[in-house]
Amino acid sequence: MRRYAAVLSLWAVLVIFLISGCTRDGEELSRYPRIRIPGYEAKDYYGLMFDKNNEIVYNAVCNLIDEAAGMGGLLSDKKADKKSEKFILALNTRQRIVELLHSRDDRIVSASLRFLQLFGPKYAEKDELAGNILKVRNNSKNVRYERLAALSAIAGKDSPVGDKFLKKSLEDASWLVSRAAYKLINSLENEKFRLMLIARYEKTLIEYEKLLILTSMTDNFSSDVFKFFGKAVFETRDKKIKDLIFRSFKNARDISEVLRWVDKNYDKLSSEDIAAMSGGSDISDDFASALYLVCIRKGWVPDDEFFEILYQDLSMIEVRGPDDSKMTEDDIIREMNIRNIEKEILDSKAAGDKWILFKGEKDAFAENVCSELMAEYDIMAEQFSQNVNKVLDRHNVPAEKRKDILKALSSVFINKESFESAVNLFKATEP
Question: Does domain 1-187 have CATH number 1.25.10?
Fold first, then answer.
């Protein structure tokens, strides 16, 4: 399937500009410019977080932002050596960053929140972290924004973020801060505020406001939200809005409800709508494969691009074989999904005839190429054997030893089984 481009809304532009954070190489400006000190490492910057000069403290925090994700993961790794220098540094850095959340310097608090935004996703004690972030009392615009960004990165359904805080954030005088609250509502899966925002969606006529509101309800949403989606997607002609809603379908709590809706409303859907719902080219995904099965039963005939992906997936299964010990449970499920799609296509008259023709042409092409490559192998193998014998002749190697030597060299240099396996990969990868 086509990889449809994500919607580049006003929000996306703002995110690119505002959330880029410190760059890896430090060469580009970011919202947290910093000075790299030659020879300094994380442990050196940690020491500078206790300096009396706030600019030096700020610079130290900002230089440690690159280390945040790794530190968060290390502290949550059960196999980590808790006595190691790196573990102790990560532990002390987390503690100092939390202390700096109460600094009187706006820049230090903002940078510390940015650190926790990257530290938090891999850190096990997310609720503890959220509690510390909620205690921030600095009320500058940047801090209010960064607090929401940090909470959005770590919050889950049961995080200690109360309705009072959410209401205050949504009503913030800053447009940026109030809209940043949408992502947090989505992370919290807060149905009360999602339903409240549906009313706001229905009142506004501004495209980017509608798109931003939708971002508050795109993950793990309830049946109530899905009913709104199912209605809203047919009430608009705006492709950006339709695509965002369709792309969210796979995140519904009740996937069976989505599939029943597709079955009922199939005649109203275009191929572009189906592509947006599937979410990309991985047809073996559980939701995508189930969606395709429903659509094929309703009469949908996939295009050549879809058949190309299906053909390559089936060829990879054939090359891998049924007894591949490296296959995971997920691999087995995906293989079953692919085979089910082909079976449903073959059961469909229109789609089946088209698939058989497509597959026959691809098989014939691949077989011709593979046959020629194997013929080349025979030529190379014979030439290799002749060249080896010439060397053995020059050195008067006895005949009884030649067979073993030639066999050993051939198995290393030009093994037929390995060559044939490589040739067969052509079926799964040829354009």
Answer: yes
